[in-house]
Amino acid sequence: MTNRSKNSKDVVDLIAVHGGACAKFDPSLAEDCRFACGTGTVESALTDLERIEKFNCGFGSHLTIDQEVECEASYMTSKNKSFGAVGAISNVFHPSRVARHLAHNNWWKRRRLLHPLILVGRGAEKYAVKNDFPTCNPEELISTAARESYDKYLHRMLHPYDTHDTVGAISINTSTMEAESGTSSGGIVLKHSGRLGHSCVYGSGTWSERRQYEEPLDEFSERTISICSTGHGESLVKADFCRGIAERVLEDEEGIMYSEIIRGYLREKMEPGARFGGIALIADKFRERMSLEFLIFHNCRYLPAAVRGRDRQIRVFESQFDPDNCTEDKFIIESFNMQ
Question: What family is this protein classified in (predicted)?
């Protein structure tokens, strides 16, 4: 399950990947994120992580209380805000590919039918088979580590949020100012069968949007944001996490630092004690001038991430947070200029 390939012609200008909220520091996770950044696109980056059993997505996903794998994934592009997601899917190696296909499929439009945003369970699995995605026996997605984790958390009654969480990828093409974002997850260990996390919910797991603003002398500026999240799914859904943050960033006219906009949102919207994390890419363009910013924010012990800039150089981030020795906010926000 570790076959990897690169396709240089598909590499976008900016791409960032995170390996999910983690309870323990593991430098190998950040190195895997580094490689995923170089594979090309949001889809290929997530596909790469879905092959690696130490991440909670695809092969190696957490088990439900019934000892089954139920994966979920989402994809969004700023073009027409197209979105697709699948949930409670158990027989597909790469659910992120199915989510992206659902977002772009014009089958319903050609027949003047309602285009679904989310497919779950048997419906999602039938869709994958119909569209020739590689399928498998559900047992093939269960790793040894996932079984051991199930036994540990079931019998020792440890806190389930001490495990890995949803992975994500985001990108911005600085030539077109269009963006893509996606997530992939096995959900929380010991989750109830049929439970859907934030990855599947429009606006919670991911968001990509481009806006144009009218300036004096009939000129225009542009701003694009691509963002994805990880953490306590139910709390992220209630906060409308990614869309809520994106709207505040895109509506800002006062030049407030994006880190402060996100800080204000987290203070206001996140429930006390809820674990969360996210990464964002933001591009501002006026005439020939462009500013690019990468942000990572979370309140978990460790959030591994990597970002690839326009110079094709990849930077790795091993962002750590100590809740026992923290700021007044009880979370961390880091911002990096990507020029």
Answer: Belongs to the Ntn-hydrolase family.
Select which of 166, 183, 206, 230 is catalytic: 166
Annotated active-site residue 174? The verdict is no
pLDDT at 6: 47
Query: Helices 258-269 & 241-251, crossing angle to 10 degrees?
Result: 140
Torsion of CA 259, 100, 205, 201, to 10 degrees: 140
CB 156 within 8 A of CB 148: no
């598909």: which residue's tokens?
Answer: 10
Domains recognised in the chain with CATH numbers:
8-337 (3.60.20.30)
Buried b (16+ CB within 10 A) or exposed e, 75-110: bbbbeeebbbbbbbbbbbbbbbbbbbbbbebeeeee
Q: Are 298 and 331 in contact (CB under 8 A)?
A: yes
> What pLDDT was estimated at residue 155?
72
Quote the pTM value.
0.93
Structure confidence at residue 324 (pLDDT):
78
Within 10 angstroms of residue 243's Cβ, the number of other Cβ atoms is 20
Question: Which among 280, 271, 193, 264 has a CA at the least distance from the CA of 232?
Answer: 271
Spatial distance between the Cα atoms of 120 and 114, rounded to a whole number of angstroms: 16
